[in-house]
Amino acid sequence: MKSGVKRFLGRAGFDIVRTNNNRGGVDDFIPFEATMRAARAADLSVGDYIDEVMNGTPGATQFTIDELRDLGVFTAHLDTVLEIGPGSGRYLEKTLKECSPGRYEIYETAAPWSNYLVDTFGVVARPTAGSSLASTPDGSVDLVQAHKVFNTVTFLFASRYFFEMARVTRPGGRIVFDVMTETCLDPATVRTWATQGGAGHGSYPAAMPRQTCVDLFATLDCSLEASFLAPMGVASTEVLVFGKKA
Ligand SMILES: C[S@@+](CC[C@H](N)C(=O)[O-])C[C@H]1O[C@@H](n2cnc3c(N)ncnc32)[C@H](O)[C@@H]1O
């Protein structure tokens, strides 16, 4: 892989491991072994290593977690958490510092990282092939989250996951994910992406209209409670927090 592409993927927070069922338009991810070795050598958790060293954005993951805490996302009763595309587990690890769910389910296409998360954090890995949460029953999850996933997959994958996220969330539960909306895409930022956004790979960074998300989730009994910008690559992404009607 060309070094420019590697740098670009690193900034995006990708896991560069080839998988057969990653249908999100991104088929190269951060190599598991090499990243773990590098993180150990730097004496950092793998999540902090990705933030600080690979992405050059120290504290980026913690920033989102802090915002979610301030919004009360972790003070609700969280018995079951589900995360789509946890990758290295940088959000998962920090989520588990904020709450102690009885079950933490993951849907992750990169097998080495999925296995590592199961072994390290005792999470439950569900079969992942595309955009279905088929192993999770309706209305069974208190918090469903996905970070830096829906700007790496195509529109159809993201929107199919949206329906599934609403289905598995229990009444009164929350759904948290980020998308690169029009809020993140003023002309100057589009220019920044165009000139500094790297080599271009797969679907990253894929945009998704904010109003489309708000209107769609409203039809699924989920209303937008809050939103904020978080750093992503050379610019930002918008984190949306939905609550499902109790
Ligand atoms: C850019 S990485 C973000 C990883 C992690 N959430 C983070 O922010 O560090 C995207 C993640 O989504 C996973 N992924 C890609 N397509 C997926 C799919 N269709 N279903 C579930 N996970 C997927 C990738 O393997 C990768 O771990």
Automatic annotation (TrEMBL):
<feature type="domain" description="Methyltransferase type 11">
    <location>
        <begin position="82"/>
        <end position="177"/>
    </location>
</feature>
<dbReference type="InterPro" id="IPR013216">
    <property type="entry name" value="Methyltransf_11"/>
</dbReference>
<protein>
    <recommendedName>
        <fullName>Methyltransferase type 11 domain-containing protein</fullName>
    </recommendedName>
</protein>
<dbReference type="Pfam" id="PF08241">
    <property type="entry name" value="Methyltransf_11"/>
</dbReference>
<dbReference type="InterPro" id="IPR029063">
    <property type="entry name" value="SAM-dependent_MTases_sf"/>
</dbReference>
